[in-house]
């Protein structure tokens, strides 16, 4: 029998999917590295610069393995890992998602022997790309781990002429990824200070409903991540 009993239950509301963006050296990877038991899927060649275990993502011309096949192999291993052994990862960090999107594009083009997705007839190139990226994001979201997507920044010119930092991930790709994230965190370095601010969040997250002490500790250090709970007063008779 799969039907739950028809009764209220205590809600648990811990965010597990995060999008972190910021300029170079603004503390993106540093913040991600403080999540519990992380493994980095690295694209910038700096995997050895981080103490956490990492995998270098690439389209390997020597072995013929594409990044799509590499990611598929990784997700299958994560799904079957034993939390009690040496592979008990609790956080997956995609560093950086911008490069992963480019690598997926390259893999599709190489397989079709074309230079761009637009060269594949009937829009099949773009359809394949969207399917691969959406499939990756949904597979990661379904896993019982934290998922962090790291992105670089681009500058947006506002109506008043000022500039604003935004994720450099293409908007159509950002919408796929961000649509499955709980919090968007913007990192900045201003002088010797490292700032972290909440750009977007799926809903209000309250301390009493977050059941992971490590996640709670990290979020409490980011202004705006935790919503202050309203105290309700009991009215006497």
TrEMBL record:
Superkingdom as given in the UniProt entry: Bacteria
Full protein name: NTP-binding protein
Phylogenetic lineage: Bacteria, Bacillati, Bacillota, Bacilli, Lactobacillales
